[in-house]
Write a structure and sequence with these properties.
Residues 19-405 form the Glycosyl hydrolase family 13 catalytic domain. With 540 residues, the chain is of the alpha/beta class. It has helices at 36-41, 43-49, 84-96, 115-122, 125-128, 176-191, 220-232, 251-255, 289-301, 321-324, 331-343, 373-384, 389-399, 436-441, 446-459, 461-465, and strands at 17-20, 53-56, 60-61, 73-77, 100-105, 133-134, 150-153, 158-161, 196-199, 238-242, 264-266, 310-311, 348-352, 467-470, 477-484, 487-494, 500-502, 508-514, 526-528, 533-538. The protein has 16 helices and 20 strands.
């Protein structure tokens, strides 16, 4: 990969993003549900961490069938989160800390309680064409949440498409009137002073369901270019596309600057490495470190210069990375390893709330504890086929989305400092040990590793612009070099709970960071401890 010129840099290329799931971040009004004013109260903490932008999961008016990803009014705020005035205050106060607010925008589908769908049900021809209808299901297309993607609507005597819940009808992007209403809404939010949009499942908007074409439909990029010209052009915004179907080869179609579409995309190929090939995400298998090296490195080297990468381990749809690929026997060492390994790669890093303090999954043992609609559907479908409950819970506790949505752990008090009353979802019992307060008091904590990684990114252009070279090492050693302007850094991680011998021929000039707090004067004949990870600048 050739060198990118710094003078063409955009703010989001050097930024670090922090995702907030508002319902679980901070409750300010003592109702057990996180809210906008709670986020405002924690801006000093986020500033201390050093982040540049907040990706805010949906706060729009919603029946909450899919926790806010089913929007019934794009112009109103869900009452449990606060008011539009609160959001305006959040945007303004975040700016005083140098933090931008990026809105999560769901435009592949709406709620079935959105006025557009309610009007369509009544027979309003204008709004009927805002959705996708068929007299009979043209195929047996399945919803991502399980079951058929075609549901019969008695008022219309027709079937409508929903790739997610039946309460989330898909929008018909072939309709220019519908698209214009989307552009109008986006311009409204841009006028509020936001920093951009994270676009939920945006690769699905070009779908042709009758042909069973979902991601990367033939008109997808036409719609994205229209979005740019109608809402985004000549504005200093970031647009992050959630694109489950993207590959390194197709990523430039979304992100090449001359195409005027998106800033960057989320890819999920590494997130599928602990799933059995050809099965759903619930079919578990152990992570292969060589496979992880191969996938992440391909995204580092095969992505052209004019495309931009996003870097993440966790989000609201993924289990906690420390429980997933870390090690409960070495939580601090493996947590720091995962952080260093990712943040030293080329691309824009995303931290999910609580990741920086080492939050973990919260195992459940009862169907009553399941909140997420995807996990609820999986549980019910598996029970019908006679699968043992223990096996079902193993999958849910490993991969379920509720794992990411437990309340943020601020301190060791009864409700973790999240609320003064019992929260909407129980706080993980380990909050007595794992919390922000404890992290801030311990100079060797995971928090300070994330803080240092953010500071390093701001100080050293090699992290943003350097080329990437995967090194041929032992299977559980993940080592790579970054090169930029006659400078070379070596990143080495022992992705294992076993001591592992390895030797490099180069000589270090300085140690940049290490998770065992070691200074490396030599990297010959190393006996790497479990999860030992270091970054060194090499002598020329």
């Amino acid at each position: 990969m050739s060198k990118v010129k710094k003078e063409n840099a955009l703010w989001w290329q050097s930024a670090v993003f922090y995702q907030i799931y508002p319902k679980s971040f901070q409750d300010s009004n003592h109702d057990g549900i996180g809210d906008i004013n709670g986020i405002i109260s924690r801006l000093p903490y986020l500033h201390q961490l050093g982040i540049d932008a907040i990706w805010l999961s949906p706060i729009y008016s919603s029946p909450n069938v899919d926790n806010g990803y089913d929007i019934d009014n794009y112009y109103e705020i869900l009452a449990e989160f606060g008011t539009m005035k609160d959001v305006e205050q959040l945007i303004a106060e975040a700016k005083t800390f140098g933090i931008r607010i990026v809105m999560d925008l769901v435009v592949n589908h709406t709620s079935d309680q959105h006025p557009w769908f309610l009007e369509a049900e009544k027979g309003n021809k204008k709004y009927q064409d805002y959705y996708i209808w068929q007299k009979e299901p043209p195929n047996d297309l399945q919803s991502f949440f399980g079951g058929t993607a075609w549901t019969f609507n008695e008022k219309q005597n027709r079937y409508y498409l929903h790739l997610f819940s039946k309460n989330q009808p898909d929008l018909n992007w072939e309709n220019p009137n519908m698209r214009e209403d989307i552009w109008k809404m986006m311009r409204f939010w841009i006028g509020k002073g936001i920093g951009g949009f994270r676009l939920d499942v945006i690769d699905l908007i070009g779908k042709q369901p009758e042909k069973e074409i979902l991601g990367d439909g033939p008109n997808l990029h036409t719609y994205l270019q229209e979005m740019y010209h109608e809402a985004l052009k000549e504005k200093d915004l970031v647009t992050i596309g959630e694109t489950g179907s993207v590959t390194p080869e197709t990523a430039p179609l979304y992100t090449a600057p001359e195409r005027n579409e998106l800033s960057m995309v989320f890819q999920f190929q590494h997130m599928a490495l602990d799933e059995q090939s050809g099965h759903s995400k619930w079919a578990l298998k152990k992570l292969s470190v060589p496979e992880l090296k191969k996938v992440l490195s391909k995204w580092q080297t095969a992505l052209p210069e004019n495309a931009w990468n996003s870097l993440f381990w966790s989000n609201h749809d993924q289990p906690r990375i420390l429980s997933r690929w870390g090690d409960g026997n070495y939580p601090l060492e493996s947590g720091k390893m995962l952080a260093i390994l990712l943040h030293l790669m080329r691309g824009t890093p995303f931290i999910y709330q609580g990741e920086e303090i080492g939050m973990t999954n919260f195992p459940i043992h009862s169907a009553k504890q399941i909140q997420d609609i995807e996990s609820q559907n999986f549980y019910q479908n598996q029970q019908k086929t006679g699968i043992a409950k223990e096996k079902i819970f193993e999958s849910i506790n490993t991969k379920g989305r509720d794992n990411a949505r437990t309340p943020m752990q601020w301190d060791n008090t009864i409700f973790g400092g999240f609320s003064t009353v019992s929260p909407w979802y129980p706080v993980n019992p380990n909050h007595k040990q794992i919390n922000v307060e404890a992290n801030l008091k311990n100079s060797e904590s995971l928090f300070y590793t994330y803080q240092k990684l953010i500071l390093l990114r701001k100080k050293y252009p090699i992290i943003i612009w350097g080329s990437y070279e995967l090194l041929d090492t032992a299977p559980t050693i993940f080592a790579y070099k970054r090169n930029y302007e006659h400078e070379t850094w070596l990143v080495c991680a022992n992705f294992s709970d076993q001591e592992t011998f390895y030797s490099f021929s180069e000589e270090p000039e300085t140690t940049v960071i290490s998770n065992y707090n070691v200074t490396y004067s030599s990297i010959n004949n190393l006996n790497l401890r479990p999860y030992e990870t270091f970054v060194v600048k090499l002598k020329p």
